[in-house]
Structures are given as C-alpha cells and as structure tokens.
C-alpha cells in the first residue's frame, strides 16, 4: 500500500486515535510494530494517517491496547472502509483548499453541530448573495473561477441541514454579526430574513447575544463544534489568519464545550432571538 501524500483530516484523525489508544496503554510504537510484523516506521505512517489500516489489524491493535470500548472501535473500523472520492466535496479537490473539503467531511459525519459567530453569519445559514460578498472581499482577491467554486461549495455544504440525516444545529450569534452590512442593505435584509425563517425549524436552535449583554464570555471567539458518532471523535474548527485549524484533544474539546455553554447561557431565548433579528431587519 503506497503512502498518502495528503491524507484527509478524517484519515489523520483515525491515526491519531490509534496513537492515543497506544499511548494510554503504555505501549511503544516498536512493540506495536512487532505485533504487526512491520517496521516501526510503518506504525508512524499509520498513526499520521499517511497509511491505511485494515479492520483486522485495527481490531488486533484495540485488543493489544486493552481497549474495551466496542462503540469506539466499531466507529473507527467504519472509517477504514471509507474511500477518498465518495463524498460530494471531492468534486472540488484540486480546485479549493483541502481544508474546505475537510470541513465538509467533518460536517457530513457529525451527529450535531454547534457554532459561535461574532462578526459573520454562519456559513451553513448564508444566502448565496451574502456568501459571494464575503468571498469577494478576500485578500488577495480570489480568481473568478475559485470565487464561484467557493460560493457553490458553501451552498452545497448546507445539505447537512436537510434530508433524513439532517444534523441538529445550534447557533449562538452576536448582534455584531447582524449589524454588519456586508453587501449592502438588500443583501443583509435577505440574509437576516432567511436566517430567522430557518431558526423556526425544530432542528435549528438560533440564539442571539445582544450588545446589551454585560457578559464578556468568550469575546472574539468564533468556532464550530462538531459532535462525532462517539465523544472521542468530536472536533472543533476555528479560523486563523493562516487558514482553518482543527482541534481534537480532550482538553481542547472540553474548553470549547464550556465556552459554547457559557455563551449560550448569555444569549436570548430562541423566540426572542428571532424577534430580535426581525427588529434589525426593520431598521435596514
């Protein structure tokens, strides 16, 4: 089996979980290599996601590491059968940055999504006109073909909120994002009206933190918390100046769970939040 030059975030996550499992058991990579009858370098490649692993070998390792969490093991096994090219986002490979494809894959496999946004409307709730405005302001400017691809990709990402497998979506958004006039009054009016209507769906929880809130919890933090099929596969996505960052260690996950809960507790209720958004629309 040849090495992957650019493993996906999900392939890297499988390897990372195997590494954590091994380290928790106090087993060295050399001991694992002996069990599998391979060179220690191969174990390093598996744990980095550069090399795949079969179901049989994964289950052998789980036993060797004394991991009795059958739900976690079965979930990891399911990942071993995933093949690059199966997801809709693969149509954008080579056109868009790999990080955007990783984000689509993360959302696709999530069982619940929770986001905090301070200055922008969440991507999964954006209208096409709003998204086009955001991407049109990129620095340096995006080539026309990439701008169109990013807009199209963002619209397709919204699939996770529809159909039989729709993921429950919890949004905490600051009033600042509602007041930004990206694209002008018409674009913002359409965007806020659409978002408020989506907030009426039972699987979407939309709550606003108004300027009047005196809390200073998590000021400036924007993030997406994706709940995995098992808690060990939860992940957090944050944006940085150099691009998207994925976090998945338990201390990091715990920090962002607490951050979301704290900010949600300071937000208006769902009905009150929708009414608040409509009041902003009337002011435009």
TrEMBL record:
UniProt-listed SUPFAM superfamilies: lambda repressor-like DNA-binding domains (SSF47413)
Annotated CDD domains: HTH_XRE
UniProt-listed SMART domains: HTH_XRE (SM00530)
InterPro entries listed in its UniProt record: Cro/C1-type_HTH, DUF5753, Lambda_DNA-bd_dom_sf
Residue intervals of the HTH cro/C1-type domain: 18-73
Pfam families: DUF5753 (PF19054), HTH_31 (PF13560)
Name assigned to this protein: Helix-turn-helix domain-containing protein
Upper lineage: Bacteria, Bacillati, Actinomycetota, Actinomycetes, Kitasatosporales
């Amino acid at each position: 089996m040849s090495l992957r030059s650019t493993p996906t975030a999900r392939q890297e996550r499988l390897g990372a979980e195997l590494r954590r499992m091994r380290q928790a058991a106090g087993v060295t990579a050399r001991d694992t290599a002996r069990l599998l009858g391979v060179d220690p370098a191969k174990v390093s490649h598996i744990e980095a996601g550069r090399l795949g692993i079969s179901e049989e070998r994964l289950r052998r390792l789980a036993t060797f590491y004394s991991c009795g969490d059958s739900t976690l093991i079965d979930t990891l096994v399911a990942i071993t059968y995933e093949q690059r090219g199966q997801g809709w986002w693969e149509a954008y490979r080579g056109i868009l940055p790999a990080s955007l494809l990783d984000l689509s894959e993360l959302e696709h496999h999530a069982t619940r999504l929770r986001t905090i946004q301070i200055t922008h409307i969440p991507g999964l709730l954006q209208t096409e006109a709003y998204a086009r405005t955001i991407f049109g302001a990129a620095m340096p400017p995006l080539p026309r073909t990439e701008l169109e691809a990013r807009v199209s990709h963002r619209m397709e990402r919204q699939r996770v909120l529809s159909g039989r497998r729709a993921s429950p979506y919890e949004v905490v958004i600051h009033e600042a994002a509602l007041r930004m006039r990206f694209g002008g009054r018409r674009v913002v009016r359409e965007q806020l009206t659409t978002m408020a209507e989506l907030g009426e769906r039972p699987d979407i929880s939309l709550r606003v933190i108004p300027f009047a809130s005196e809390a200073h919890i998590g000021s400036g933090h924007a993030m997406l918390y994706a709940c995995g099929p098992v808690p060990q596969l939860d992940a957090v996505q944050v944006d940085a100046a150099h691009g998207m960052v994925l976090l998945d260690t338990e201390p990091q996950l715990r920090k962002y769970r607490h951050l979301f809960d704290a900010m949600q507790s300071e937000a208006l209720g769902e009905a009150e939040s929708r009414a608040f958004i409509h009041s902003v629309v009337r002011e435009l």
